[in-house]
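Practice problem: DUF4126 family protein
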Amino acid sequence: MALKITDPFWQTLGLGTLAGMRSMSAPAITSHILSHHHSKRLEGSALNLIQSEKVALVLKVLAVSELVGDKLPSAPNRISPIALGGRCLSGALAGACIYKAAGGNAVTGGLIGGATAVASTFASFFIRKITVKRSHIIDPIVGAIEDALVAGGGVALVTTAV
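Answer key — structure tokens:
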């Protein structure tokens, strides 16, 4: 089936938002989409690897592992410099791939995805902290609710991308 990305700007915003919440979600979702709907526009570029079914599988395993690891007390804050940088790169990678696959500029997609991931990282961090404090629900439960939002957002992005 041919790839038809309906709106790369909004899809990149969505992927960037998910990257801020769960760093591996955006590359996993992007790779899932592109491994099932190859884009000739990515062929011959460094971004072509994301279209591999094996890469998609590895990214999905990493994304699920992140969901589990996030609940551990030893999980670092997502706003620490290293974690923030990883989320920014995750959103940038997803945005660059989506934009290039749609025939747009990969740099533009990367900038939009990365910037959105940074904004989402801070927003989701503080929303989660405030929710835990005000609701008195333990943090892992709030994290599981966040996981459900990421999963639902991912499904929505996959179904609207093609």
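Discussion: Residues 8-68+77-161 form one domain. Students who identified this feature from the tokens alone can consider the problem solved.
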